[in-house]
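Justification of computing resources. Each target in the renewal requires a structure prediction run like the one illustrated here; the chain below, 420 residues long, is used simply to show the kind of job we budget for.
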Amino acid sequence: MFESFHYRDGRLHCEGVPAEELVAEFGTPLYVYSRQGIVQRFRELDEAFSPLDRLIAYSVKANGNLAILRLLAGEGAGADIVSGGELYRALAAGVPADRIVFSGVGKTVTEMAAALEAGIYGFNVESEGELRALSELAATMGVRAPVALRINPDIESPTPHHYTRTGHRATKFGIPSEDAPRLYRLAADLPGIEVRGIDVHIGSQIVEPEPYRQALLHVLEHVDALRADGIALEYLDIGGGFGVAYDARDTGMDARQLAALLAPLVAPSGLKLVLEPGRFIVGPAGVLLTRVLYIKEMGERTFVITDAGMNDLLRPSHYASYHEVRPVVRHPERGRIRADVVGPICESGDFLALDRDIERPAPGELLVVETTGAYGFSMASTYNARPRPAEVLVEGETYRLIRRRETYEDLVRGEIELLD
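Resulting structure tokens:
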């Protein structure tokens, strides 16, 4: 298995490029992605499901950089979008409209109109109100909207944080399973609607295949009932959320095991399978590089203060998520310490790692925060008026800047100054 990030002579490399070289040119904080790592993960999933007619619709919200979207489009990926902005990104990056599915509970009329004009593959509809609004809009535009209803199977999937469980009744997502037959009949009768598929999404960062099997069996019952009711479908969208290993002691989703469990169930249905992976493809292929500013002792606690904070990487603060933190250049002779790795943001919740056993760093040295290719930059902000980091894509021994670091001028661009 190819390793996107590895040490040579005690120095971190991305593919064939030393991390220090990237920092010397682009500064810190800095997001770095491995092209080969992204491609390898996509192909791994695609090949696992190769016996089926399939569409791998990459989840744009995981990382929407145009260079990454274009790379995946070239591999044959589609896009799973949740906003008009993500539609714009996907189309700008060359993703064909007929490979785009539109998910999300709060699609606006403007966003739906743009998607209809583009000719996307399908809308994953999440409420009766959305279905009726889409019908009215499509009829007004003189087109038909291809839809799937997102079924909520009321499955409490095993995810690390309750925010990422989306398949149970207490969430805002999907249509109650018992209401699906009525809404499918309604969809079949509404003007401007073409019933095309059925959709389910049970959560994020799931590392075992079994919950997907349960969700799939639930949805296939609906498929059989709909066919008996005269409603034929074209595709089945099993969603995404396939987990990755954030800790060296953990394991992520095994694509071959997932396919071995799901493909035999899907194949007899004759339906096209849509998958919506995001984190699985880009998560392990990205890291965040940051520089140590200060080491601060506070009684029994030690704080390693870095120039990257929760505005650059929100996941630890928002989800209590774990990311490995290591030195870019190893100095094992210094020994190890227990420390909180924290950022410069004026919030107590600003941290990258808590009570972590790490190699003792020195001010000015570089740290790597691993597995940040997904929901790293995409959740970054300019909180505390801090410009967002640059992004770099590495291929072999070459690299290119795929997003420049924001400037202070960028922070106020678009604002209107009111003068007395």
